[in-house]
Amino acid sequence: MAAVPETVEQVKDLSVDQYKYGFTTDIETVKAPKGLSEEVIRFISAKKDEPEWMLAWRLDAYERWKTMTEPRWACVHYPKIDFQDLYYYSAPKSTQGPKSLDEVDPELLRTYEKLGIPLEEQKVLAGVEGARVAVDAVFDSVSVVTTFKEELAKAGVIFCPMSEAVREHPDLVQKYLGSVVPKSDNFYAALNSAVFSDGSFVYVPEGVRCPMELSTYFRINEKQTGQFERTLIIADKGAYVSYLEGCTAPMRDENQLHAAVVELVALDDAEIKYSTVQNWYPGDKEGKGGVYNFVTKRGDCRGRNSKISWTQVETGSAITWKYPSCILRGDNSRGEFYSIAISNGHQQVDSGTKMIHLGRGTSSRIISKGISAGHSSNTYRGLVSAHRKAVGARNFTQCDSLLIGDQCSAHTVPYIEAKNAHAHFEHEATTSKISEDQLFYCMARGLDEEAAVALIVNGFVRDVLQHLPMEFMAETQKLIGISLEGSVG
Amino acid sequence: MLEIKNLHVRVEDEDTEILRGIDLAVPKGEVHAIMGPNGSGKSTLSYVIAGKDGYEVTDGSITWDGEDLLALSPDERAARGVFLAFQYPVEIPGVATLTFLRTAVNAVRKARGEKELNTADFMRLVREKAEALGVKQDMLKRGLNVGFSGGEKKRNEILQMALLEPTLCVLDETDSGLDIDALRIVSEGVNTLRGPERAMLVITHYQRLLNYIVPDRVHVLQEGRIVRSGGKELAEELERTGYAEFGEGKAA
Ligand SMILES: Nc1ncnc2c1ncn2[C@@H]1O[C@H](COP(=O)(O)OP(=O)(O)OP(=O)(O)O)[C@@H](O)[C@H]1O
Ligand SMILES: [Mg+2]
Predict the structure, then answer these.
(1) φ, ψ for residue B228 (rounded to 5)?
(2) What number is the ipTM of this complex?
(3) B70 vs A423, residue with greater confidence
(4) What's the CA angle centered on A216, arms A212 and A221, to 5 degrees?
(5) Which of B158, B198, B161 is nearest to B175 (CA)?
(6) Would the CA dihedral through B186, B189, B195, B199 be positive or negative?
(7) How far apart, in whole angstroms, are the C-alpha atoms of residue A76 and residue A340?
(8) For all residues of chain B together, what is the average pLDDT?
(9) Which class for A206: exposed (0-12), middle (13-18), buried (19 or more C-beta within 10 A)?
(10) Which atom number of ligand 1 is nearest to the Cα of residue B44?
(11) Nearest residue in B to A463, CA atom
């Protein structure tokens, strides 16, 4: 990407204040009635002009959800959520669906600007020629901007809002939706399946290397509106795609529920790279008002020699419950998980991954860097398992925790299961405190305490940072500094 | 002028005093050397000047340019021109040396009310200074001090000093670990920084360094006190006699 070095520079120069992402735009919204019922689901489905099979699928998920209970095994604590006290659908009134950029509400564009969204993406949003990151921006529930569809179409790549895919590509959607994360997989996945608002759909056909990074920005903007994105990415045989997702949320004093589902399918020799920078509102100093983030992300390495790699930077949310996983079904397939999870204030993070080795010669690699500060709690929970046929399965796991101050906690919960004797699993874990000597050294060179902490932490997470796409790297380094403000002194 | 008066320091949570009444004045434009046996308190003195946590000043004062240093945090001191070249430079894995240098230079410039350097200007500056000190470019790309040899770490300290242009330089055993050529190169680097606006405190065990960096005064520190001060010939005398002749050791 030609503009990357300048972008990195410009992003570095953006002065970002402590949670300055707290603002809301006043775009009129259309709401479904409060609470969840068959009527609400019918309302959502009708609003989206969905075919009958989609509605039936939702209703089936709803029936299953009603029989399920919230998981309680994670190391997180929060008051009981009243699922009847939430709105399950809201959309900006000014748009009915994706339109060209000229028609985009300037208020929206200003919002993105205030968010400090990387300039490359801003340029795309502003329609600058030559900017090459496609953005399918989800503003609240309806996708309002979809760019570069034509160029992608030339390559045969389908990149569109899920609601559009349901109408335009029903065969693909019916074949793959729920094939990685079944409707009744877990409480939140079932809820999502019933009420999912929108999200991205990507299909990269056989042998095609997607000509650009696909990027989406999610935002939650409506009071008490649960957000239920549904994303499905399919890389057909020998295809390659890299997908970037990033988000921030405006400041609110009520808790916001977010329960997304992301499904990835990689067929023979295909590769999917999925990167996330998550920076939702973590709550105020007392931990009040942050986003509850209960996400199910799973990739299926369905074909031989396929590869799925998750990279995540988690700095936001009051509660994070998230385990991007890989099912290594195809022989010689490979799964990767690179994670930076930062918690400060009263944030609670319970995140990790699952690497399920089913095929022969499958391999996986996990690098997790957890940083806890303030009064936060940060848990890595990971499962690596090898099934009977997974002869020669290999995993390497490295879990490093860094503690800042003495009010926070870090936990590492690795589960390892090997059902055959020919699996080779390696696990390394460290927990350390930020070193006084390092802090002093930096400060003696003129860095104030916060800058020193930010620098040291950025060094600590470097192994993971370098797996992020370039234009996310500078932004992320900045974000790490912001996330840790107020963690020392 | 650096002025240290009746400085008493102990380590927090420990009873023994490490510095037991130090009086020292280094006017601008002068270089003073401190020599003394292992454990006499030389590094402790340098840490207290730079502002490291964990040391309690129970009595006395340190002023620089008339300003009370003890009231300032380490970064505020750096902004006032205080610089410590560490005896044991600290490793910071994952932080490229170049990134660190740039962050430090701009932090100090900002605190001094100067404009931050852009990438191009900064790179030019680093290249020039690094070359003069024989610091290789590829070293700058590596993690800060990570896997650097003893000598490389010391050169890197002097590179930082050259970049930050401090006015009060404290060098703690910068010569240990340097080979003969490096000793000369580093000394030249230090000498180019000598000037009427700068005060330097050079801690060393070896008279040899003082052949290159010729001091105006030499002080002998023993058991937390300065037991003798003199001209540069004092260092030569020490080299011949050792420390037994001095201070409290003499009575034995
Ligand atoms: N943090 C600490 N805790 C306990 N003792 C300490 C601490 N720091 C210094 N000391 C003690 O204070 C004394 C002085 O140490 P210092 O490092 O200042 O000596 P030095 O003169 O620099 O020695 P060297 O020539 O070996 O570098 C030593 O006895 C040392 O063990
Ligand atoms: Mg010492």
Answers:
(1) -160, 150
(2) 0.95
(3) B70
(4) 165
(5) B158
(6) negative
(7) 18
(8) 92
(9) middle
(10) 18
(11) B94
